[in-house]
Amino acid sequence: MKKNNPNENEQNKPVNENAPADEMIDINSCLTEELVSETTQNGGDEPLPNDYDDFITTDEQAEDEAQFAYADEGIQFANEVEMPKKSTKKNVVIAGVSAVCVVLVAVFCFLIFSGTMDSLFVTGGNEEMINAIPAEVENLTLEGVSDNYVLASGIFVNGQSIGKMKVSDARKLLEKYAKDNQPEFTYTIKLGENTYDIQSEGLELNANIDSVLATAAKYTKEKGDALPTDKNGEIQQIEYTLPFEITENEVLTEQLDKASEVLNTEPVNAEVVGFNPGADTDEKFTIEGGTDGQNLNYDSAVEEMNKLLWTQEETGEVEPKTDAVEPEITAEMATENMVPIATFSTNSTNTYNANHNMATALAACNGSIIKPGETWSFNDSTGNSNLESNGYVPATVIANGEYTSGVGGGLCQASSTIYNAALFANLEIVERYNHYWASPYVYSGFDATIDWGNLDLKLKNNTDYSVYLEAYMEGTTLTVTFYGWKDPSYDGIATYSYNYEGPSGYYNTAAFRIYIKDGEEIRREELPSSTYRLDGSHSVWDADSGTLGGIPGEPVRPYEVEKDPNDTGYWASGTDSVSSDTTEATEAPTSPPTTEKPTEPPTTEKPTEPPTTEAPTTEAPTTEAPTTEAPTTQPPASSETPSEAAA
User: Is the pTM of this model over 0.85?
Assistant: First the structure.
């Protein structure tokens, strides 16, 4: 191989005569120096490894290179060789590549400035949980926390590592975990002694991922890289429990509805279970009940179950709040409604024995309780008034239109006193009969005769509250008071009656109950009419021109009412002189009449048959005069006039 001669190259070198001497450079010399410099780098004279031959050429190569490099001034060699034109296709490719590069640079810059690029370089979620302690999840929100915020290392959620992860990546991880790991549970709701189990099957459960991430972000911000260490100096990991929450759906509502059927308790209305008629007003009644019912509060039940579910407890017992349900009648209402709604008194002019029977009958009725819808019977209360064993004694009675002696005589004044008090108390009159002759102790049309086993006085309580009867005799005065609920639709009740012509030997009496509100009549009710016998010693008795009662705390008093159109006033009252009423019974009573207010009824034999509860037929009041036809049967006998069988 022939090496190039530097001198030879020098001789053949064209010279630019116009160039200054100091600008003329020996090219061969430069090439040689460059080559020497390259071949001696990194150690002086040692050649470059694996590329030394690249700098060795043949004579032909040198000759060709010299011809190309040192052509004459006209550069004929170069002119003889046509230079290739640039390719248009190649230019398009180059331009396209350049454009792509520009776009990539722009995208790269955007990702950097937006923070998204950081995620390409953030790694996490690969830590192994080996030294973790439980940590409480706080009920926080992610407000102000960026999705790009990187959480501290050593954080786990249900064993899932979210340390060194961005918030957005940790959320995706936990969403998948929550979807694949829905908790199962059975929670027992307890109200009092009752329990009901709520099952997780079919319920909608929502994982509170934001609270976990917000708690982890707060921890990261507070601790930073200075994570806690254990006693061995190792970084202390922490683990959160992913909280779940029960959300409302049809299955949940169905389960809570079924739970309510088991757990709810009904309210108990207040009820007077004890009546002490002789006691003071504030001790007169013993009240029980009036307790609230309890209904399961659905929101509270879900809230309490979520407390267990927050920590992924599989079982547990909760006692949620309840909604109180007041009874229709509270203890306060029962007390307020136990007022004296009507009081009525009569004076006896009868015999010693008759007064005894009156007092005995009133004592037997004293303390009676008529519950809502119930019907009260005078005979059921007194027992058989024809028996001396029940405390009754012989006295004057009327039998078959004649005065005679019989056990129980005189107690019709007790029943008549109760009847008038019942009218003012707005009790329904189920059964009532008038005497053979008009009674001098009440207005015509307002007496109520009794014959045990035949004739009775029956009253019905149509209110929602119990009615209580207080009855006693002091001296010769009979007093009856009804306690109960005062109907606010009226202020008081007036009674009114008038006499009119009856069949030969009789006269009739029409009677009314009139409801007063604000001093005006608002309605009137026709009461059972009466037919009385007229004879030589018995004439027409006084009718009631108007008496107002039924006002708590106020006594009965006269009241001017609007008269019925058929009230002609012709049948004025007369006198009823019954001299035989003053005749003493042939047999003296075993004990004197009661003259003090009794506190307990006497022990009497009660009838075996219960009182009737059949409601009376009621008709609208009429203003037409009652019929004047003679009755087909004689007026009924009374216990003042017992029947022949009773006598």
Answer: no
